[in-house]
Amino acid sequence: MSGWLKIVGLGPGAEAMITPEVSAALLDATDVVGYVPYVNRVAPREGLTRHGSDNREEIRRAEQALQLALEGHRVVVVSSGDPGVFAMASAVFEALEAGDAAWRALDIQVLPGISAMLAASARAGAPLGHDFCCINLSDNLKPWALIEKRLRLAVEADFAMAFYNPCSKSRPVGFERTLKVLREACEPERLVIFARAVSTPDESIRVTALKDATPDMADMRTLVIVGSKQTRLIERDGEPLVYTPRSAL
Ligand SMILES: C[S@@+](CC[C@H](N)C(=O)[O-])C[C@H]1O[C@@H](n2cnc3c(N)ncnc32)[C@H](O)[C@@H]1O
Questions:
Q1: Ligand 1 centroid, distance to 41 Cα (angstroms)
Q2: Cut 0.85: pTM above it
Q3: Alpha-carbon separation of residue 207 from 127, 232, 235, 241, 246 (angstroms)
Q4: pLDDT in tens, 36-61
Q5: What is the set of domains in the chain, with CATH numbers?
Q6: Measured from the CB, is residue 205 less than 6 Å from ligand 1?
Q7: Interatomic CA distance for residues 137 and 166, integer angstroms
Q8: Angle, nearest 10°, between helix axes 144-156 and 174-185?
Q9: Does the beta carbon of 82 lie inside 6 Å of ligand 1?
Q10: Is 223's C-beta closer than 6 angstroms to any atom of ligand 1?
Q11: What pLDDT sits at residue 11?
């Protein structure tokens, strides 16, 4: 049988948020390739080899997956959330473009998953219900100056904003810098949602005003949503609902 490569999203954490299409690809695979914690989300079974690798080895991992597929393996590359959102699909295509010409003949598919911003938004209500943008706050692959420019322009254009990678062990001050920019550019009452470990047993959803937001509210398992000027909060018994109306002036 000839090999193939599927680059899939495992969703934010819960089994129920993995699409049937991705589950079928995993059942059919001979090899699963990915960052160790994501590979560990795929149950071991006979006939399946799991290749876990370290966080910053995306290109080497992508090359390994392409080569395995070329050798006839049925390979699934796993990401959390959606594979096209700050994840492995772009890494595989970077490797494909720069690498062995034979890889271009492979059967390659990207299978979508539920991205963290969509799962987080759904938990809070509908904060991304009007125009929004998402920004990766990590400065591993781009300079902080570019992140800051995009933040300021997004605020100026009055987008709601979803932030991935607010901070990490190697970037402990990451989110503090972001909050400083937001405080300069937005009004103090602007709504901020901290959605941590959505759809896992550690899930927590916290809604606050920008003036009360602190850097420690975000860690590497947190997706942060900052509302636009239009974003509103509906108080009720239990958790409030946050939403952005469909129209703007
Ligand atoms: C490298 S990005 C991967 C994004 C992923 N491809 C997606 O579409 O969700 C990792 C970041 O996604 C966010 N994230 C991933 N899973 C999450 C979850 N279950 N709850 C909240 N945020 C999550 C966090 O901001 C984390 O730092």
A1: 15
A2: yes
A3: 11, 11, 11, 9, 21
A4: 999 999 999 999 999 999 988 999 99
A5: 4-114 (3.40.1010.10), 117-243 (3.30.950.10)
A6: no
A7: 5
A8: 30
A9: yes
A10: yes
A11: 98
| One-letter amino acid of 148 | E
Distance CA 158, CA 110 (A): 32
Whether 7 lines ligand 1, by a CB cut-off of 6 Å, is no
- Ligand 1: which of 19, 90, 117, 221 to mutate, most ligand atoms within 8 Å of CB? 221
* Non-local CB neighbours of 25 within 8 Å, separated by 6+ positions: 6, 8, 76, 111
- Assess whether the C-beta atom of 138 lies below 6 angstroms from ligand 1: no
Ligand 1 in contact with 79 (CB < 6 A)?
yes
**Residue with CA closest to ligand 1 atom 15:** 116
CA 29 – CA 186 distance, rounded (Å)? 48
Tokens of 195: 């959605």
> Can you tell me which residue has the tokens 């947190």?
222
User: Distance (Å, rounded) from C-alpha 158 to C-alpha 163?
Assistant: 15
Q: Which atom of ligand 1 is nearest to the CA of 203?
A: 20
Q: What Cα–Cα distance (Å) separates residue 162 from each residue in 1, 123, 229, 246?
A: 42, 14, 14, 17
197 alpha carbon – ligand 1 mean position (Å): 8
Residue 248 C-alpha to ligand 1 middle, in angstroms? 29
CA-to-CA distance for 157 and 136, rounded, in angstroms? Answer: 18
Q: How far apart are CA 223 and CA 175, in angstroms?
A: 11
Q: Is 29 exposed, middle or buried (0-12, 13-18, 19+ CB in 10 A)?
A: buried
pLDDT by residue (tens digit) across 234-243?
999 999 999 9
